[in-house]
Amino acid sequence: MPLNSVSDVHSPVQAWFEERQWQPQAFQLDVWAACGRGEDGLLQAPTGSGKTYAAMGHVLSKASATHDKTRGVKLIWVAPLRALSADIAEAARDMVHGLGLDWEVGTRTGDTSAKDKARQRTALPDILITTSESLHILIAQKGGAERLSKAQMVVVDEWHELLGSKRGVQVELAVSWLRHKAKLGNRKT
To answer: Taking 60 as the threshold, does the pLDDT of residue 6 lie above it?
Structure first.
């Protein structure tokens, strides 16, 4: 389905908000629009204000609007703490379900079972919630470049917690690597 404007892309997420009797915050609308233009940015808002839905809203709404059925990781969410991963996954599943998407939401942390890690070596979930350390393990695995290179967005949660640390450097290197792979597409390097 051809989309005529950015507002067409975001109509599914706006409808989902309306169904829940929510009104999108101005910063959420701004984030969705900026993502639609391919911009990078930093989002700072109070806890509980809807940052998670702002950050993932564009990618999920676009997939819903275009009826995208492709499989594989589309959104990588880097959380500094494993404890945050469960909350983010719950919010992601709620939004995925509400937008009618058949997307898998999965986590990859030190707590991930060996069975799930083995499955992720061949196929990653559509939304991958991970830590900086686990993201580097995925990058280093055979086929990691292929599995991760189609990601449309990388969200780094609680960036201020990572700044100036080894983990922050890991995130910066991983994001740089992902951008490089996305630009190269399927070419071998």
So the answer is: no
CA distance 32 to 51: 11
Percent of the chain residues topping a pLDDT of 70: 92
Write out the H or E segment, with its range, that includes residue 103: none
Nearest alpha carbon to residue 99 among 23, 19, 3: 19
Q: In sequence order, which ranges of 75-187 are alpha helices (DSSP H)?
A: 82-98, 114-120, 132-140, 144-148, 159-162, 166-184
Give the helix/strand (H/E) hosting 12.
helix 6-19
Please provide the average confidence, as pLDDT, over all residues in the chain: 87
Separation between Cα atoms, residue 97 and residue 100, nearest integer Å: 5
Dist CA 176 CA 28 (whole Å): 26
74 Cβ partners below 8 Å, 6+ apart? 59, 63, 103, 126, 127, 150, 151, 152, 153
Going by C-alpha positions, the residue among 186, 181, 166 that lies closest to residue 76 is 181
- Strand-strand pairing, 75-78 and 127-130: parallel
SS3 60: helix
DSSP letters for 23-59: ---HHHHHHHHHHHTT--------TTSSHHHHHHHHH
On the question of pLDDT at 5 being above 70, the answer is: no
d(CA 45, CA 4): 30
